[in-house]
Amino acid sequence: MEGKNILCDINEGIATVTVNRPESLNALNSEVLNELECILYGLEQDNSVQVVILTGAGEKAFVAGADIKEMVAMNSYQGHQFAIQGQRLMLFMEKMSKPVIAAVNGYALGGGLELALACDVIYASDNARFGFPEVTLGIIPGFGGTQNLARLIGPAKAKELVFSGRMIPAAKAHAWGIANEVCTQAELAAKALALAREIAKNGRLGVGYAKNAIVNGLNMTKEDGFRYESSLFGVLFATEDQKEGMGAFVEKRKAEFKGK
Ligand code: DAK
After folding, report:
1. Rounded CA gap, 217 and 223, in Å?
2. Is residue 71 a contact partner of residue 82, using CB atoms and an 8 Å limit?
3. CB 66 less than 6 A from any atom of ligand 1
């Protein structure tokens, strides 16, 4: 399951998806967005996959943004199509039942930062740099960046980053709550894999429903969120995984979840 610009390796329930255009710092053109969307759709359907890690090829960039060289020539119709395509991808990633971990191994700029923010967890290497340079190009983030960033770190810090167009280093992204963890570039893949393995040991339905509750609950009032959480909680009691997980605890053995 690979494309011209995307590599995908599946091992022990963990899919590592790599944006592979290092000569353009993995910039997102419409072909990359298409391939990424197809691959993630496939991974969501693939029952052997429990967690996805998303990263960029090379040592310089996760994704240095949407492809400016493609965008410069777009007419308004093409710009609109490009926006629809990008937003559809970001929204799909939020709706995926499988957690997506961004392993940010360098620049995460513009559309690249939006892609990372659409992931559930961001691990970053210490050379990573985060920013929204869109205003320096006369535009604004258009793949959900203003919305996701402000929800994640609050409006004041989001405005500082977006209005200035500046890049911040990994340590500051960590302090601001954008990156969950920062490590050396040599450690990044192993750290992301270790988290993915820890998640993959758990019941896939529980993890998927927890993601669903957190992502959707953020757009609800607290009371509606509580109601939503309780209905998902109740549904899980109709699953074999709940019986297995609690049964294993009572019987003092390791649970063998089946995702059913
Ligand atoms: N697009 C296309 N090519 C890019 C690129 C990008 N975003 N970023 C880098 N490259 C290319 C460079 O042009 C260069 O190609 P050649 O010149 O060798 O052919 C190659 O990658 C290596 O880059 P540099 O030579 O520039 O490398 P440096 O180490 O000197 O600099 C840099 C690294 C990341 C600081 C620099 O490349 C840079 O500033 N890149 C642009 C970063 C940027 O502005 N990113 C945000 C793009 S705007 C939309 C929704 C969303 C968006 C757009 C529309 N709709 C709703 C319609 C999103 C917009 C963006 O993401």
Report:
1. 10
2. yes
3. yes
Site to substitute for ligand 1 among 21, 24, 115, most atoms within 8 A of C-beta:
24
* Location of each CATH 3.90.226.10 domain in the chain: 6-200
Q: Write the DSSP symbol of residue 259.
A: -
**CATH classification number, 204-251, choose in 1.10.287.990, 1.10.12.10, 1.10.1040.50, 1.10.10.10:** 1.10.12.10
Tokens of 207: 């993890």
Q: Where in the chain is the domain with CATH 1.10.12.10?
A: 204-251
pLDDT in tens, 109-153: 999 999 999 999 999 999 999 999 999 999 999 999 999 999 999
128 lines ligand 1 (CB under 6 A): no
pTM here is: 0.96
Over the chain, what is the mean pLDDT? 96
pLDDT digits (tens, 9 = 90+) for 64-93: 999 999 999 999 999 889 989 999 999 999
19, 33, 68, 91: residue to mutate for ligand 1 pocket, most atoms within 8 A of CB: 68
Strands 167-169 and 129-131: what pairing? Answer: antiparallel
Residues 6+ away with beta carbon under 8 Å from 232: 209, 212, 213
CATH code of the region 6-200: 3.90.226.10
Instruction: Please give the distance, rounded to the nearest whole angstrom, from the Cα atom of residue 63 to the centre of ligand 1.
Output: 9
